[in-house]
Specification:
Strand content: over 45%
Distance between the termini: 54 Å
CATH architecture: Beta Barrel
CATH class: Mainly Beta
Shape: globular
Number of strands: 7
Order of helices and strands: EEEEHEEEHH
Largest sheet: 5 strands, mixed, barrel
Structural class: mainly beta
Radius of gyration: 18 Å
CATH superfamily: Nucleic acid-binding proteins
Number of helices: 3
Amino acid sequence: MYHTVIIVGNLGRDPEMRYTPTGQAVTTMNVATNRQYTGADGNVVKETIWFRVSVWGKQAETCSQYLKKGSKVLIEGRLTPDPATGGPRIWTRQDGSAGASFEINAATVRFLSSRSDAEGGYAADGMTPQFSDAESDNIPF
């Protein structure tokens, strides 16, 4: 049997890298995926799902070096179930409400943000380029 999960999303915070006792690098990242649709009542529904992603080896070091909060990534890997439940890891938040964490062991991480995105060349929505007054004079249209 075989399964693969592919997600595209944005990092919710900077990646965290550490080394196992055997010296292998592992980087963990929190990735948010977003979905927006119109419900049956006509209202717009925004849905965000968070994934905890583990990356291993040389790829872990590369992710730690080049990715940061807000970076857009494509992750291909496999789900890692909670050994106790066989599903997502269930936990209790500080306010007493239940939370779930979907965990992915990444096989491939593709960087989708360009360097200009990483240097702050895009607005907070990640879609609209920002230009200074000097740059706007050079735009041919």
